[in-house]
Amino acid sequence: MSLKTITVRTENPQQLIDITHTARLIVRESGVTRGTCQVFIPHTTAAVTINENTDPNVKQDLLNILESVVPSKGTYLHTEGNAHAHAKASLIGSSIMVFIESGQLVLGTWQSIYLCEFDGPRTRNVLFRVTAG
Ligand code: ZN
Fold first, then answer.
1. How far does the centroid of ligand 1 lie from the alpha carbon of residue 37, in Å?
2. Is residue 10 part of a domain?
3. Is residue 1 assigned to a domain?
4. 66 CA distance to ligand 1 centroid (A)?
5. How many domains does the chain have?
6. Among residues of the chain, what percentage have pLDDT more than 70?
């Protein structure tokens, strides 16, 4: 399948946005029943991860933990004001992979795929590639 790009408008300086529903739609549209779904974010101040989808405090805890490690108002050499966002993006990572079986993403009951915004609000692209195999 060719690369599929979606656009997400983030609303806050830092937030996690659940994009699992979109990923499920892209997998369904692909017609792939067994394979992989790769998700990549082509930005240096945003990331993609998988985490719990039930208690919203998990998302906030993750943001709080990252903030304690890399404070937004810290002193950095990169002077654009978003050095913390670059660091957080690298700590979380820019891609994930999920298996596909029986045409469905193989995610745990409590797992969702999240776009992680660290320097919003912005318009972000997220790339998906579904591969059979
Ligand atoms: Zn920067």
1. 29
2. no
3. no
4. 17
5. 1
6. 99
